[in-house]
Amino acid sequence: MAYHGYTNLMCQFLDALPNHHVRILEIGIASGQMMIPLVHHLVKTHRPFEFVGIDIFVEDHLDVILRGFNLDERRAKVSLINGNSLEELSKISGTFDLILVDGDHNYYTVKNEMTHIERLSRPHTIVLCDDYHGKWSQKDLYYSEREDYAEIKSATERQETEKQGVAPAIDEWLEEHVNWTSISPLGGEPILLQKSDTGLLRGIEK
Hints:
21% strand
């Protein structure tokens, strides 16, 4: 995920949370660019946590890296789900403090992924959505059409929709959920969603 410097902001947000068991959900973990620094930070700060990641292809090296953290399963748990988010999200229960959305960059997928956000959120939850301002903002990317994903049978096939891209799907969700607002604290591709009454990001360095 191309977060362009959001790692530090996310770590500061996690540190500002009340003293409870932190839960993070990442849709589209790719090579672990965000998962690894977040897990490392939580281990270093001795914060009890659970990290759930979903991807249509979980790379083998991620398990090797996680073993290197020597996680104490009584306080730290990482679950990597090899599957399609459109099927797996409905199986996930509980709520999360931080949700990262970076699956297939197309209107159909993002529109359906966003239907789970309210159910999976806590009052202070923030949601980071990749490519809202990027290359796939107004046009569709389907990983099923990429050569390096040709053998991944769980990848979503192209769907014909009137709209395309990440931005329209998120904009529609925001119109339907007036208790949420969007901000771009660091600029660049991702957009950050938060409930209008949350104050946890106030004072965090930008």
